[in-house]
Amino acid sequence: MSGRQAVADAPRIAYFSMEIALRDSIPTYAGGLGVLAGDTVRAAADLGLSMVAVTLLHREGYFFQTLDANGVQSEAPAGWNPADALEALPARATVPVEGRTVALRAWRLVVTGVTGRRVPVLFLDADLPDNAPWDRTLTHRLYGGDARYRICQEVVLGMGGVRMLRALGHADIARFHMNEGHAAFLTLELIAEHMAAQGRAKPEMADVRAARERCVFTTHTAVPAGHDRYPMDLVERVLGPRDEFGMPDVFCCEGELNLTYLALNLSRYVNGVAKKHGEIARHQFARYTIDSITNGVHVPTWVSPPFAALFDRHIAGWREDSFSLRYALGIPRGEVWDAHCQAKAALIDHVNRVTNAGFSTEALTLGFARRMTPYKRPDLLFWDLPRLAAIGRQAGGLQVAFAGKAHPGDGAGKELIRKVFGAANALKGDVRVVFLPNYDMALGGLLTAGVDVWLNTPQAPLEASGTSGMKAAVNGVPSLSVLDGWWIEGCIDGVTGWAIGANDRNHAMGEPPDHVADADQLYARLEHDIVPLFTNGRQRFTDVMRHAVALNGSFFNAQRMLQQYVLKAYF
Ligand SMILES: *Cc1c(COP(=O)(O)O)cnc(C)c1O
Predict the structure, then answer these.
(1) 64 C-alpha to center of ligand 1: Å?
(2) Which of 138, 291, 334, 456 pairs as cysteine with 481 (C-beta 3.0–4.6 A)?
(3) What is the pTM for the complete model shown?
(4) Is 34's C-beta closer than 6 angstroms to any atom of ligand 1?
(5) DSSP string, 217-260
């Protein structure tokens, strides 16, 4: 065996994620976690890292969102045909669920990096004729169903994933990376494998240590309710009695299983997804050593065609080496602005094709797109409608494009979409507001590249990282954002964008949010900084755009992120 191809043929890292965003035609993702997984795989392929990714097939996708005239969301299965996009593999594995044996197969998509190297992604599928009718549905819906459905899905992902890797001949995987706690049951399978290899009938600490030596865990949420927890009687119904349940170094918590703790207990390396999030996680899980690796986006995926052409003219090798975006500082301002105008025209065309909002390419355009849920505060911009209307008049035109899905069970998130529709109506004549349905990767690309300023107003410190602002940055679009998540690291005020909230207001968990102060600052930054710069200071505005690419695009990218995982987590 010689050279890189031999290494790539025998994956050393198995990356597990409940969701993954590879293409728009494969709707098996709900949001940032899946986009990060997709960008990680793409960066691994670019760098020639030997990796295999494991996820579930999700035949009905997340969901297809439609919105009525009042912003009431309805959900339909996001139909797709796996055979159109993926290759069916003959291998089979089984996994025990509630005393039954569930058969699994896998579908494969090979992701090719910018240098031609490849990373396979395996989609596990339980919809086989041998399985009981309910078991066949286990790989249908992402984040659907009740606790029983969810835990069974997680058994399929974690235990089924390891077994499928073995069935496909991947015997020597060095690291198992859990992208969030959903895959934590893989640790039980690794303990069982080691125990069997040692000829033991009961697990011992040596088996736990051997499993731990191979696992890496990335936690993604700063919201305490974001961690999956199940009552122990449900766990035992699904998995049967297991000796690990009585081992405090494996299952820590009386009466319940918290998948985050299972992953924490069984990982040699644990990280949060931004420096601040690492701090929060260390506070939440004080007994554990938790590092941070700040997220990044895959540059060749998220750069719009006009900016790709611009970089092709000015930055040799930018696709292969995301660090080289630092040379964007030398691109003439006029060319940056022209490329932006093209990306903006593409967005405005789309808006005017799918809505009757009558957007103009001249007006200052803000964008806001992410999961619709209360801590993201999509309504903060509408705190004071007369003041926002006045900003619209001051700017000589202001328009805002929204997008985002609310989880079917998140009533408060759905209510927020209706609020945006209500504000859009109330602002007619002063500020144009649209809500584009069915947020997906393609719409994310159009929006982050095509607006003038990317807006983010989470309730600090609940945004673990956020990545859409990084997509904007690689397209020269500066952020106006609450100092939280990645923006604490990426914001140089007035240079790469603008901050809402001071960094010294050191948000602690549980501190009541100050919506009034945040909204006031949001308006003040528009009134005093952004509108004047956009309308009268085009040169300086373009400087901010260049800094967004050079200072933030060159760092908050998935190639840098993955290199940190290699150095700190994998080896
Ligand atoms: C980038 C992206 C996200 C994540 O955005 P955040 O800023 O992290 O909330 C979610 N959904 C889609 C479709 C995306 O492209």
Answers:
(1) 16
(2) 456
(3) 0.96
(4) no
(5) EE----SGGGS-EEEHHHHHHHH---GGGG-TTT--STTEEEHH
Q: What one-character DSSP code corresponds to residue 406?
A: P
Last residue of a domain, one of 239, 267, 295: 267
Examine the domain organization and report whether 441 and 534 are in the same domain: yes
Q: 171 and 42, same structural domain? A: yes
571 inside domain = no
By most ligand atoms within 8 Å of CB, the mutation choice from 29, 39, 299, 370 for ligand 1 is 370
Q: Are residues 73 and 160 in the same domain?
A: yes
Is 411 part of any domain? yes
- Model confidence pLDDT, tens digit, residues 366-420: 999 999 999 999 999 999 999 999 999 999 999 999 999 999 999 999 999 999 9
Pocket test for ligand 1, best of 36, 468, 471, 475 (most atoms within 8 A of CB): 468
Query: Could you tell me if the CB of 484 is within 6 A of ligand 1?
Result: no
Query: Which residue lies with its CA nearest to atom 12 of ligand 1?
Result: 31
Geometric angle at alpha carbon 178, from 234 and 163, rounded to 5°: 70
Q: Give me the pLDDT at residue 249, please.
A: 84
Q: How far is the CA of 86 from the centre of ligand 1 (A)?
A: 24
Q: Is 31 in the pocket of ligand 1 (CB under 6 A)?
A: yes
For 259-280, write each residue's pLDDT tens digit: 999 999 999 999 999 999 999 9
287 Cα distance to chain centroid: 27
Give the pair of three-digit tokens for residue 457: 């107003």
Domain count, the chain: 2
Q: Write out the residue range of the structural domain in which residue 496 sits.
A: 307-556
Q: Are residues 331 and 251 in the same domain?
A: no
Q: Say if residue 70 is in the same domain as residue 219.
A: yes
Does ligand 1 have an atom closer than 6 angstroms to the CB of 432?
A: no
